[in-house]
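Same chain as my last thread, 164 residues:
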Amino acid sequence: MSTATDAAQREAVAAWLADSLNRPGDARRQWADGHIALLALGRRFSAVRMADELVYAVAVGHGAIATAVLRECLRGPVIHDPHNRRFYALVPCSPPNYSLGRYATYLGLGNYIGVPRVGDDEPNSYRTSYWAVPMSAPGALCDPIRLNAMIEVGTTALDSQPES
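reply #2:
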């Protein structure tokens, strides 16, 4: 892909994300001012918040680093907030009709999420969050079925560890 195509794709993703707000310009200002925009969930997309230890348990089981496992397992965008030790998988707006367990929580309508500027794909001591797995195209979200399977694998691994 050319640089112009990459830039156009990033702009399309940013526009799609910003449109989760009634005033999309607010998101663009927030990204320009502080790298993170507070976006509404439950309109265009929702999120599943996962504890770091859940994601890392799955990664250890696959013998890979967390971002590679997330990319392979979920095939959709994931934000990492290392300061609060959480991953956020962006998913369609339909809440699951089953429990996600104690390591994951569905966040939908009435919730907001801090979304990094499109292109902030690496951890940085100046940013609170980054795209562990960038959004590939507008509306390209994680598959909830694949996400649930990953959560089950991680939960089983964590629950089978001896207590300390």
